[in-house]
């Protein structure tokens, strides 16, 4: 599943289509009126967490890439067919595959929760966390209402970076550890962004999908933890459990 930094890259790569007119629209998405897009200008292209947003004068379209979604700019895959294909007046095109597409209201979005946004508000994140003292740290980082854009890679790497066991409960964390959790959710997301642009992201993974802790040189523990049941990788020696 693409994480927030990947959507940030898509927004940058597609930025030239802002202000252009959609001259042809096709695809097999059923939740939107695809032919109605033809002739519409694109007012803005935005991202919120794992959502890509195409804003037109009449409505905003949300692209959610789910587990296997992808996109192509100025090219198409042979298969599967695109869920949505947009062609623009400069001859360029934007194609989306294996994703969920629907209309949304921009007022529904809490931009202060997006870890990649200029509107990100760490104080608001800490307040939301304190309201859920029994929440496990591994679930907290994947809660899109708190950390929009954080996915499983960022979760595992942040917890390793701040030496926190994934099953630590939020209410048990010392104040400095809670601040570190919030700060590193954003900091690591921008590290992720730079490494992905340089095509070296996996080389920087210290915990995610790794076998040996680089600090303690002992095997990592692995498991489907928390209510989200997402894969976690952690060191029993250097990642402290707070409960």
Automatic annotation (TrEMBL):
<dbReference type="InterPro" id="IPR012319">
    <property type="entry name" value="FPG_cat"/>
</dbReference>
<keyword id="KW-0234">DNA repair</keyword>
<dbReference type="Pfam" id="PF06831">
    <property type="entry name" value="H2TH"/>
</dbReference>
<dbReference type="GO" id="GO:0003906">
    <property type="term" value="F:DNA-(apurinic or apyrimidinic site) endonuclease activity"/>
</dbReference>
<keyword id="KW-0227">DNA damage</keyword>
<keyword id="KW-0238">DNA-binding</keyword>
<keyword id="KW-0540">Nuclease</keyword>
<keyword id="KW-0326">Glycosidase</keyword>
<keyword id="KW-0456">Lyase</keyword>
<dbReference type="GO" id="GO:0016829">
    <property type="term" value="F:lyase activity"/>
</dbReference>
<feature type="domain" description="Formamidopyrimidine-DNA glycosylase catalytic">
    <location>
        <begin position="2"/>
        <end position="95"/>
    </location>
</feature>
<dbReference type="Pfam" id="PF01149">
    <property type="entry name" value="Fapy_DNA_glyco"/>
</dbReference>
<dbReference type="GO" id="GO:0006284">
    <property type="term" value="P:base-excision repair"/>
</dbReference>
<dbReference type="GO" id="GO:0008270">
    <property type="term" value="F:zinc ion binding"/>
</dbReference>
<keyword id="KW-0255">Endonuclease</keyword>
<dbReference type="GO" id="GO:0003684">
    <property type="term" value="F:damaged DNA binding"/>
</dbReference>
<dbReference type="InterPro" id="IPR010979">
    <property type="entry name" value="Ribosomal_uS13-like_H2TH"/>
</dbReference>
<dbReference type="GO" id="GO:0008534">
    <property type="term" value="F:oxidized purine nucleobase lesion DNA N-glycosylase activity"/>
</dbReference>
<keyword id="KW-0511">Multifunctional enzyme</keyword>
<protein>
    <submittedName>
        <fullName>Endonuclease</fullName>
    </submittedName>
</protein>
<dbReference type="InterPro" id="IPR015886">
    <property type="entry name" value="H2TH_FPG"/>
</dbReference>
<keyword id="KW-0378">Hydrolase</keyword>
<dbReference type="InterPro" id="IPR035937">
    <property type="entry name" value="FPG_N"/>
</dbReference>
<comment type="similarity">
    <text>Belongs to the FPG family.</text>
</comment>
